[in-house]
Amino acid sequence: MEIRPTTDKDLDVFVDTLHAAFGRFPETPAEDGGGLWWSALETDRSLLAVAADGRPVGTASAYSFELTLPGEALVPAAGVTGVGVLPSHRRQGVLTAMMRHQLVELRSRGEFLSVLLASEALIYRRFGYGPATYAQQLTVARHQAAFARPRARGTAGIPATGSDAGPDAGSDTGSVELLRRAECGGILEEVYDRYRRAQPGALSRPHRWWALGAGQPPVSSAPRHVAVHRDPDGVPDGYASYSVESNTLTVDETIATDDAAFTALARFVLGHDLVTQVVFKRLPPEHPLRWQLEDFRAGQVSDDDWLWVRLLDVPRALTARGWCADGELVLDVDDPFLGEHGRYLLTVRGGEADCVPTDREPDLSLDVSDLGSVYLGGTTPSTLVRAGHVRAHRPGAAALADALFRAERPPHCLHWF
Ligand SMILES: CC(=O)SCCNC(=O)CCNC(=O)[C@H](O)C(C)(C)COP(=O)(O)OP(=O)(O)OC[C@H]1O[C@@H](n2cnc3c(N)ncnc32)[C@H](O)[C@@H]1OP(=O)(O)O
Fold first, then answer.
1. Regarding the domain delimited by 134-304, which CATH topology (the fold level of the hierarchy) does it fall under?
2. Where are the domains of the chain?
3. Is 120 annotated to bind ligand?
4. Do the domains spanning 2-111 and 134-304 agree at the CATH topology level?
5. Which CATH architecture has domain 2-111?
6. Probe ligand 1: pick from 18, 48, 95, 117, max atoms within 8 Å of CB?
7. Mean pLDDT for the chain?
């Protein structure tokens, strides 16, 4: 078997093979050639696994994204996608060969992080990926959707997300306008881009995604209503893209650059007539919306992992992010898939880290996939110690690691790719 890069000429074969791996058929291409999820594929980052008889049997690709790290650091990240192996060739090591080829190639491009959304949770840990961000689906019965009066006294103004004071749900001084997806793509792109730069765990949505309508709504051009929130000066600062079917209003995503805009948008969709429930997809864990409702049980929550993270260069990755607490930690990191092992002294001072090889006794021993899980601050190291996956070599090591790895706000990603 050979793993080879693709060119534009291979796109049809790539798409065909990938669909066959999922047991599907490629949708009929739109006349203008856009709007399909694979239209944003980067052929120079795509791989085909070809069997000895010349037949393509596996695919893997990657997008060029920017990932926001804690401390609002924007770094390049490879978004692994389009992974599939024909049912006739499974469990013969095709994926393993493609993953190895891909990781080596990413490193040769100078990349130090790769991320993916896993179709199944059992596939990617062996390749060094760990779940790092989580998303919640909140289903609210509309008859229970009354908002509580904020209990904080003396709330002045409407602070930005992540500040300590909460927004007064009733004091929005902005406005909500109802548009169609087809008429507000530019607004969505601009608001999303502002939001993602300040949100740890968020991925960029390259302009070509919006231009092609690639991916899922509201990036795709599927018909959607869009509630656009504007600040008192008329500047868009949030949106909720939604559709209504069988008395259920489903919000694809609610993007807001502050809590007040989010609250206004939530009020807007929860106030929709002839709807019995509102489903908010892909909310960040611990989102305040449940707390804002009078009836805490009005919302039903289901949790899912979202972004999986893989470190390709531990010192570079650890020095690239910002840090909220000072301290020193010795990490002993095992990377069995790449046959590597390293021990690093992580020193954090004033929000920045230094990370160098050391032979000091370790504080924590962990697999690179577990380092991926804690990297963005969405999983505490102590959880993985308690689960038996990370070894703490001294009392207090896990608590120190928790304090160090915490992000200024829980990481969250809702971009589908
Ligand atoms: C980022 C994305 O694109 S996610 C999309 C992933 N693709 C899909 O889910 C499409 C449907 N599935 C497939 O195409 C294939 O089953 C794949 C790609 C998941 C696996 O490809 P394969 O070539 O069979 O994997 P490979 O033979 O290299 O397996 C490596 C190991 O992973 C294990 N493994 C692979 N897939 C799975 C799975 N779905 N569940 C559990 N274990 C798995 C294998 O058992 C094997 O274990 P071993 O080393 O202990 O023997």
1. Aminopeptidase (3.40.630)
2. 2-111, 134-304, 314-405
3. yes
4. yes
5. 3-Layer(aba) Sandwich (3.40)
6. 95
7. 94
pTM comes to: 0.95
Residue 114 above 50 pLDDT?
A: yes
- Ligand 1 centre distance from Cα of residue 22 (Å): 12
Q: How far apart are CA 250 and CA 279, in angstroms?
A: 5
* Degrees to nearest 5, angle at CA 293 with 289 and 296: 95
How remote is the CA of residue 111 from the centroid of ligand 1, in Å? 24
Token pair, residue 5, equals 């890069």
* Number of other residues whose CB lies within 10 A of the CB of residue 269: 24
Q: What is the pLDDT of residue 26?
A: 85
The CATH number, out of the four listed (2.40.30.10, 3.30.1050.10, 3.40.50.2300, 3.40.50.720), of the domain defined by the range 314-405: 3.30.1050.10
The three-state secondary structure class of 204 is coil
Counting from 1 in the atom list of ligand 1, the atom nearest the Cα of 118 is 4
Task: Annotate 217-265 with DSSP letters as a single string.
Answer: TTTS----EEEEEE-TTS-EEEEEEEEEETTEEEEEEEEESSHHHHHHH
Q: Within 6 Å (CB) of ligand 1, which residues are found?
A: 21-22, 80-85, 90-96, 116-120, 122-123, 126
Ligand 1 centroid – CA 40 distance (Å): 24
DSSP letters, 308-377, are: EEEESSHHHHHHHS--SS-EEEEEEEEETTTTEEEEEEEEEETTEEEEEE--SPPSEEEEHHHHHHHHTS
Instruction: Report the percentage of the chain scoring pLDDT > 90.
Output: 91
Q: Is the peptide bond before 218 cis (omega within 30 degrees of 0)?
A: yes
The encoded tokens of residue 154 equal 């003396």
Q: How far is CA 376 from CA 69, 106, 219, in A?
A: 6, 20, 25
Q: Positive or negative, the Cα torsion across 166, 172, 174, 180?
A: positive
Radius of gyration of the chain (CA): 23
Q: What percent of the chain has pLDDT over 70?
A: 94
Task: Provide the annotated active-site residues.
Answer: 124, 417
